[in-house]
Design brief:
By secondary structure, the chain is an alpha+beta fold. It contains two helices and six strands, in the order H-E-E-H-E-E-E-E.
Length: 118
């Protein structure tokens, strides 16, 4: 998988959160996908399978109480890193910065591990 293809898929993934439209996640998630979410601490929650991962991401994407801001995306073959900020208010303390480590197979997301600055 080329870096350009991986970045294009990550951009499509991010659009779901930018537009608050979880339907944009359709066709991006593998049946055997595994997500390690950022919370609750210290280890986060683990979601296994397409439906579980879509349910988690759909809940986040559909929320109008927060704004997702991708800061940087880079890829190395089938792997990508997304640096981001999530805002839930106007103040500096009303946000968190984080990173997702993503892995793809055959153009679908198979692994996502999220980490935040604490």
């Amino acid at each position: 998988m080329s870096d350009e293809t991986t970045i294009a898929i990550m951009n499509r993934f991010n659009e779901a959160f930018l537009r608050h439209d979880p339907s944009l996640l359709d066709g991006l998630v593998a049946e055997d996908c595994v997500v390690e979410n950022t919370g609750p601490g210290p280890d986060g929650s683990r979601h296994v399978g397409r439906e579980a991962c879509l349910a988690l991401w759909s809940g986040i994407a559909s929320s109008r109480d927060s704004e997702f801001e991708p800061e940087e995306i880079w890829a190395a073959g089938d792997r990508a890193v997304i640096r981001w900020r999530l805002r839930w208010g106007p103040g500096a303390a009303d946000s968190v910065r984080g990173v997702n480590l993503m892995r793809l197979r055959d153009g679908l997301i198979v692994e996502a591990m999220g980490y935040v600055k604490g």
